Structures
1.
Amino acid sequence: MEGSLQGQVALVTGASRGIGKAIALALAAEGAKVVLMARSQAALEQVRQEISSEGGEAHVFVGDVSQPEAAQGAVAEAVQCYGGLDILVNCAGIGVFAPLVETDPADWDRVMAVNARGPFLMCRAAVPVMAERGQGCIVNIASVVGVKGYVNQGAYTASKHALMGMTKVLAQEVQPLGIRVHVVCPGGVDTDLVAQARPDLGRSVLMQPEEIAEIVLFLIRQKGRAIIDQVNVRRRSSAPWFS
Ligand SMILES: NC(=O)c1ccc[n+]([C@@H]2O[C@H](COP(=O)([O-])OP(=O)(O)OC[C@H]3O[C@@H](n4cnc5c(N)ncnc54)[C@H](OP(=O)(O)O)[C@@H]3O)[C@@H](O)[C@H]2O)c1
């Protein structure tokens, strides 16, 4: 498939549905070979088939991002199947939505494990491989809750703040290795997750996953001397300047 990412290898976590799926489809449509990671094999297989029917190339890796072996395994499989790794998109994420003091400690741990520890483990596995070739691009999908606090989203907010902090440090540490790190902070996007988080929002006001994918593509394709570290993206009907 011809495209601006021809010859590049991408790994997308959370690729089985929602924003991650849209990003995987967009990367494949631009010619990247994409490793699709999530826990649901059947859903990943469907995404792979969708990509393949459009003439693209993808490989399924079933794994939990919060497990070090899975993170290492996904990166190793990208190298084995496609010869390297150029792009990592950390999109897998979960939420639990309750007032902070009513949040079960086990739920807190689970959210932190997937949303903060997961991207840490994925980056830890990917950076040495990218560094070998002196180039790479990592895009972390945080959230508006990585920038401000939302009531009833305490654990989720804390996990995305952790991801923001990690991103800021990593970006500085890996720039000398030729690796770029970006973070995207979306507001409400029409997916399963937002239906849980914000049942008060009608679907008609939510952003589409493809709109976030377009922004991720823009960041990945950036060349030259300009670089965008962070993108905040809000629903058109929400108040400007959430940060
Ligand atoms: N929707 C929004 O309004 C919104 C706004 C801002 C930021 N975000 C962020 O965008 C990202 C994607 O969210 P979404 O809205 O697309 O949610 P979604 O539709 O619920 O998709 C979540 C994805 O993460 C995967 N996932 C969950 N736990 C995982 C684990 N332990 N290991 C591997 N994969 C896992 C899921 O696949 P499996 O269940 O198959 O594992 C699924 O592919 C999340 O990080 C979320 O915080 C969403």
2.
Amino acid sequence: MDGTEVVSRELQQIDAVISKHKGHHGELLSILEETQLLSEQQFLSEEALNHVALRTGVPLSRIYSVVTFYSFFNLKPQGKHKITVCRGTACHTKGSKALLDDLGLMLGCETALEGGDAFYTTPDNQFTISTVACFGQCALAPVVAIDGVIHSNVTSGTLQKLLARVSRRRVKA
Ligand code: FES
């Protein structure tokens, strides 16, 4: 199956999602949520959003305002594993910037960090790195979430072990 067929199949699936939710309360949110789930990399592509706008008649500007308001919508492809480093004051004081830098080194993505990018996905699509303003667990700083599980008092060493645990890939020491 070539790329065009894949896209056309995805658009057909989006049509089915739209039909399923049409006329129901909160239909736009449901349509967008399910459309994101259809994507292998768990994100809403420009093409998918344009298609939803075309088929539902909802202005694209309104669709963008919805997907940028809710944090569970992704506009960029997501890695298999999600790592979120807290960059709040307590975590910063306890070394969260160093953890972010270490992650870049371990995952071979130093250049992303040099560019000041706190959100990136590794080229093999295994990990998506992002930051958060505070997890509300400041007493346990520094805090890092991996696939939704909060880890406290994280050091570079524990981070390396955690990465190895969630992935079979070797991480750089
Ligand atoms: S500052 Fe990191 S959990 Fe609050």
